[in-house]
Amino acid sequence: METIKQRTQTAVYVYEAPLRLWHWITVLSIIVLCITGYFIGSPLPTMPGEASDHFLMGYIRFAHFAAGYVVAVGFLGRIYWAFVGNSHSRELFLVPFFNKKWWLEVLYEVRWYLFLEKTPKKYIGHNPLGQLSMFCFFVIGITFMIITGFALYAEGLGRGSWADTLFGWVIPLMGQSQDAHTWHHLGMWYLVIFIMMHVYVAIREDIMSRQSLISTMIGGWRMFKDDRPD
Amino acid sequence: MPQSIETFYEVMRRQGITRRSFLKYCSLTAAALGLGPAFAPRIAHAMETKERTPVIWVHGLECTCCSESFIRSAHPLVKDVVLSMISLDYDDTLMAAAGHQAEAALEETIQKYKGKYILAVEGNPPLNEDGMFCIIGGKPFLDQLKHAAKDAAAVIAWGSCASWGCVQAARPNPTQAVPIHKVITDKPIIKVPGCPPIAEVMTGVITYMLTFGRLPELDRQGRPKMFYSQRIHDKCYRRPHFDAGQFVEHWDDESARKGYCLYKVGCKGPTTYNACSTVRWNEGTSFPIQAGHGCIGCSEDGFWDKGSFYDRLTNIPQFGIEKNADEIGMTVAGGVGAAVAAHAAVSAIKRAQHKGDQE
Question: Is the pTM of this model over 0.90?
Answer without folding.
Answer: no
